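so im writing up the methods section and need the Cystine/glutamate transporter record in one place, dumping it here so i stop losing it
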Amino acid sequence: MPCGVPELAIKLATAIGLTAVMYINSMSVSWTARLQIFLTFVKLLAMVIIIVPGLYQLIREDTDRCNHAAVYLPTSHTPLSFSMFVKKKRRTRSIIEDARTLKSHHTPATFAEKIYGNISVAVPIFVALSCFGSMNGSIFAISRMFYVASREGQLPDVLSMVHVRRHTPVAAVIIMYPLTMLLLFVGDIYSLLNFMSFLRWLFIGLAVVGLIYMRHTRPEMARPFKVPIFIPAVFSFTCFFMVFLSLYSDPVNTGIGFAIMLTGIPAYYIFIVFDRKPKWFQKLSDSVNRSLQILLEVVPAEN
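--- predicted struct ---
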């Protein structure tokens, strides 16, 4: 029997990937964008590799294992990715026996072993690259969120500054690194995933509800593009459904995450709304911003 991968090895691999993504996002916006395009192509290529043999099996009428495939279909956040994942899951289950599917911790790898034999090692590599792409996209998006929040005065000023030569929001990118590493090595990975997915989908769902609200209250507002209202409605319902699943599957970690989220309310009123801050606090904040600005070689974006 093959032995399992040690948890420390998984965490170290995650730390290496996270460090690489942070470095790329700090060095160049164009590198980040090109890497994301390449990794998205790799992800879709991996799905095609799985879907095509599955279609061949369906043509041969080997469809008896698709009877309950809907139970295993995931929910994604765009029509393209949703359709690709649905096709992948159906084609995979049309080839792998039910017993092997239930016992396997990595269905694509089991599928590849059955179809491609010795070259099946490529599928886990594709999966790893897909995870790397998800991490790259998340850091790119979250760092820009910090950047905008700082520009609006809701976070320290240094987070809205860009590097003098590379024009990347270095501070907004690396601010996540120490805390992410701490959570990675101190906490349990799967509890952390559950905790983060709850907060992520809750806020995404609330943001989309805000979009629906603005469509009704301010229909005359100029918008770069518009989609039918049922699309954000279905998407927000999906987000809240995933939040409910997190509450149902792991109420303890989800409750802790919700409690930590609520601490942001008093922090917002103390540090943002309340203007009469002590002079020592202002001096400390200015000193930290100035020191980080010199250390990271960043300047306000308008300069």
